[in-house]
């Protein structure tokens, strides 16, 4: 096999581990033996109670399995995530999944997971219902912000690290929503039609990475997959998850997503939260007494029930929750050190999209008076389950809405954070945040300053709530609250205008050519204001990168939310492999900003010394192929330090060279690293495309295979559009 390389560009951050504690796990064999012995002592009623949720989400936790006192089992508390412990005091609001991905920093990813695990453990929460690892397929999809973006490799790296961090604290991470749950509209009555090979190569890898990192639990999606409900899908839960992935843990339904008692025979282990439907007085269950009667009558073999209980107990023993785990107390405080971590992550996730004439960073030498414009610069107005429809949302958007949020305590806002930091440089801050529809007043305030910062927002969330006319999925990609007109008015009044966007991803940018600076802050959690200020003043060098492609209009994307009035709507994933930047490449569509885009204040270059080669090790006379290594030198050509992140892309052999693999996307993201270089510093970099990432999934043989022959092309750049 021959190699080709094209080198264009490169960056790293190191974050200390949050906790010195790490659970000492048992061997799988010992854990399974202990679990079987425990289940052998259980009565039929106790087994039924273990697999059927108690309290119907109105008990002590969002999901709850009651104790078995005579056997020393203290019960299971399952609490919403993935951005922190929901419905609890003293719960840090962590960055959204999309922001975690934007850091392109594996240390931060892992440490966020550790911190989430710490807070869960302190509160006695056994299972955190996250992370979410569905793909950024349609830019309007409501829960995009919970996941890790449009690229399979990046999402896989995020899932691997966050899950490993959570599990290190002896808390069970829940990989969700398995699988094909990429929109909110009719999520519980839609059928995702996805080709087997596309499932294996695009949608399964993040979930498989979660298994490798020790995820204790999986949550099935509400949707059907190729005509079969996920929660009742033998292929998905048994063949793929439990056999192919070798998953040892347990699978739960999404809330009220269980349809019948036979699902336990097809791979579902827990019915959550227990009742047939939402409601504090609902006690009937499609499992519970119905499942018990079916077992007693011989309609369902007890072995299915035993296996489900054994899977729960295997994880309890493996991660020593049965040995030593704190008592349940959702008000316990385990947040020490987490604000600092979230601030670091928030800053690392800020993406500098445009910086004409080096309008940023801010300093007292450049600007004496700065105007901050927009309601988005204010403190967050909490959007709770019962309050989102009462008036409009207001303030900085730290997270979206729904089950993935926290109580959002003590969110730092841009106006306060920027004002505090500006004082250190002797900069005067003026502001207008009272009414975004009053563009005349906003322009007046902006015109009287050396520079204007406009903070604008959009949001999205879970489909069970309608917020400002958005049913989870966004009805359009425009900024909320008159944002486009507000920016246009300010930019017309002040030639030095910087726009900061807090949103769940792409928004329309009709004003792009009229502003000098554009910053994407995403949904960064608790330190929304401080993280932004750190980057704008260059107290932290910008290093965030887009985990999605920023198209010019909604119609540019491969896919959109599918609407319809049928009882079950089909959602065809007809784009196949061509998701995100791969679609834009295929259709030759020019976006505003490509996947991986993110500017820096410092300037970098890659030297013309790059080499690519097969990395082979010989052990006991056997050649082991590690993959394709590419080496090159990065230089910071500025006189001050900064972060830079090289991205590696792989072009597979052509279909002519190996007809079995078919037509692949031209560029496939396969690795990255983040480094810090002082001004003038050079560093030799070696990035590996793992051997597994050079393979394809053969659906005929149902296995991953290497190609027969052909040329692999390795590309390195600052972003996808640098290649």
Radius of gyration: 25 Å
| Helix/strand structural class | alpha/beta
Query: For the residues shown, what is the average pLDDT?
Result: 94
Give the domain tally: 3
Total beta-strand segments: 30
Percentage of helical residues? 10-25%
N/C terminus separation = 22 Å
Q: Which CATH-level-2 architecture of the largest domain?
A: Alpha-Beta Barrel
Can you tell me the overall shape? globular
Query: So how many helices?
Result: 16
Q: CATH first level of the largest domain: which class?
A: Alpha Beta
How is the CATH topology of the largest domain named?
A: TIM Barrel
Biggest pleated-sheet summary:
6 strands, mixed
Unreliable stretches (pLDDT < 50, length at least 5) are: 1-17
User: What topology, given as strand order, has the largest sheet?
Assistant: 2-3-4-5-7-10
Characteristic key phrases:
single chain, about 725 residues, alpha/beta, Rossmann fold, Immunoglobulin-like, 30 strands, disordered N terminus
